[in-house]
Amino acid sequence: MPEALDTTAKEKLPAAEPATVPVPVDAKPEKARSLWSDAWDDLRRSPMFLISAALILLLLVMAAFPGLFTGASPRDGDLSNHYLGAANWTNFFGADWFGYDVQGRSIWARMVYGARASILVGVGVTVLVTIAGTLIGVLAGYFGGWLDAILFRLTDVFSGIPFMLGAMVVLTTFTERSVLVVVLALAFLGWTTIARVARGSVITIKQADYVTAAKALGASTSRILFRHILPNAIAPVIVVATIALGGYIAAEATLSYLGIGLSGVSWGIDVSAGKDQLRNAPHVLMMPSVMVSVTVLAFLMFGDAVRNALDPKMR
Amino acid sequence: MGRYVARRLLQMIPVFLGSTFLIFCMMYALPGDPVRALYGDQAIDEAQIAAIKQSLGLDQPFMVQYWNYLTGLFQGDFGTQIASQQPVADVIADAFPITVRLTVFAFLFTVVVGITLGVIAGLRPNTVVDKSLLVLTLLLISVPSFVLGYTFQYVFAFQLGWVDPNVNDPENYGQLLLPAVVLGSLSLAYVARLTRTSIAENLRADYVRTAVAKGLPRRRIVGIHLMRNSLIPVVTFLGSDLGALMGGAVVTEGIFNVRGVGYTVYEALTRREGSTVVGIVTLIVIIYLVCSLLVDLLYAVLDPRIRYA
After folding, report:
1. Which among A20, B4, B13, B131 is least surrounded, fewest beta carbons within 10 Å?
2. Which residues in chain A are contacts of B159 at CB distance < 8 A?
């Protein structure tokens, strides 16, 4: 609702200007508030955004510098610690905080080192999907005609394939599965949602008066696309992309859990390793599970907050 | 109406061909040779391998194989499994009813519980009830299904002993309950959120005020006026969801040892049984396409303003 925007703007003014100033509204001519500055004002005051941003920051640091959080190695184990119990609270951030897995490796170390793979896959897929989907959606939406027919049919074909099953099939064709391979596989199947959203958004915007005006002034197609259409059509794309990021992290964990995701250190692999001892040593499975869930939750909350800020209608 | 359905059915053809072609390409690109794998450690007889490949048509070029597969498909022939020599159609016929039962169970759970929760929260926007539903669904969405599956298995089967950890008898609905709840939980969260948003938005609509002013009973306002208008986005989601549920069954069936389609696909993938994988994915694609057609037809039922010429 547009009213919602207006009320927030009115509420802000008295707080920003001291009551002693006689002409509070006209004293400081308000800058033209763009969608983005409005959204940023909303975000700064949203507790959900602040909490999720703090969590994401922590995860990013963990992914970049895992050595800060643990001194233990995620790969070297001491077999005498085989399935040693969970949660020794006295040794904060030490190696045996969460116990040990089947090979006597520190579970906490594996949780910390697993962050890098998840974050890289999540961010990588989102970036690729956003670029590819926006490109395809904008081309289809702006030019229409046969290009739209072909691209849209292609989108239909790709969205007809079930995401998880398709990803499983694509990934089994690779024997070495690095982060890049997983990112490419998920992006290969995942771009369709963004393409649809971008196409719909472009179709609405290309009828706007300012686009007609730009055309009448003789602006080139690329100028219209990049200066007029794209900046105005991108908001819904960003909303969908931020929310999807958490989903891609969950997808990576699921594929790794099935044994067709990453090869290396990953939370999904650890869950899969713990599943056979669920009855006797539940901590082996639960700790990486909690880690995946918290990470996905952080990104989902972040996406929700961004959506609320960019699209006040959804409130 | 008839013409619309005919047009939609025609439009499905290229999508169907494209999806099966993609999956076929991927299976063709799989490393490893399923025929050679039959021999294991034994000495390999090249002549015999060539004979098996010829009988299965695996020595043909890619496009010929795809063409043969398609023509077979239209005659109900899904090909033959390499290792067991069983027709893929039989394998699917064994596994499919189990997954259909599980999926329909999960789907019903999603619809009934999801819409109920969504309506309860949507009618009281921004109250404690509404806020707690938003938090609960956010948690459900962020927990991957394998995590939820093992957590439920640990709590309800191992700790409380209420249910069996594994499904021994896929005809037994009591045993299927836990896997169905796990499978449906993600969709449940989405359905609840969509219903909630839609109801909360329509609550302010003029027609609701008119209905209240007319003095209609609350049950009629909510059940007829509000629900019918609010369910369109939910129905859209549910239509695309049935195919996704079947795809997601891979994980759930693995956890609870259900011998359904997901289990079979996973087995086939690890054994490089291309024909089985392509067959099952093809079926799921068809189900997805039919569901999305049904959804579009349902729009007209829910909203009489939508008419298909």
Report:
1. A20
2. none
Count of CB atoms situated within 10 Å of the CB of A213: 11
| φ, ψ at B32 (rounded to 5°) | 90, 155
Distance to chain A for B251, nearest Cα, Å: 8
Per-residue tokens: B54: 């010829």
φ, ψ for residue B146, nearest 5 deg: -70, -30
C-alpha B237, offset from chain centre: 12
In the predicted structure, residue A23 carries a pLDDT above the cut 70: no
Per-residue model confidence (pLDDT) at position B192 = 93
pLDDT tens per residue across span B256-286: 888 888 888 888 888 777 778 888 888 888 8
Say how far apart CA A211 and CA A229 lie, in whole Å: 8
Rg (CA), chain B: 24
Q: Whose CA is closest to A292, among B61, B195, B268, B149?
A: B149
Say which DSSP state A95 is in.
Answer: T
Query: B5: which 2 tokens?
Result: 């359905």
Query: What backbone phi and psi angles, to 5 degrees, belong to A306?
Result: -65, -40
Q: Helix, strand, or coil here: B218?
A: helix
Cβ contacts of A311 within 8 Å, gap of 6 or more = A235, A236, A239
pLDDT of residue A57: 92
Sign of the CA dihedral with A46 first, then A231, A160, and A245 last = negative
ipTM over 0.90: no
Q: Cβ(A184)–Cβ(A248) under 8 Å?
A: no
Q: How far apart are CA A296 and CA A250, in angstroms?
A: 7
Instruction: Give Cα B13 distance to the centre of its chain.
Output: 20
> What are the tokens at A267?
């939370």
Q: Is the domain defined by A36-59+100-314 classed in CATH 1.10.3720.10?
A: yes
Which 8-state DSSP code applies to residue A277?
G
Nearest alpha carbon to residue B249 among A269, A168, A172: A168
Find which of A56, A161, A168, A239 to mutate to test the B interface (most B CBs within 10 Å of its CB): A161
Question: What are the residue boundaries of the structural domains of chain A, listed by start?
Answer: 36-59+100-314
Query: Can you tell me the distance from the alpha carbon of A188 to that of A184, in angstroms, rounded to the nearest whole number?
Result: 6
- Report CB contact under 8 Å: B147, A271: yes
**A106 with A72: CB under 8 angstroms?**
yes
Is there a contact between B158 and A278 if contact means CB atoms under 8 Å apart?
A: yes
User: Residues A288, A267: contact at Cβ < 8 Å?
Assistant: yes
The mean of the pLDDT values for chain A is 78
Give the pLDDT confidence score for residue A80 in this predicted structure: 63
Name the residue of chain B whose CA is nearest to A287's CA: B147
The conformation of residue B224, written as its DSSP 8-state character, comes to I
> Which residues are bridge partners to A100 per DSSP?
A106
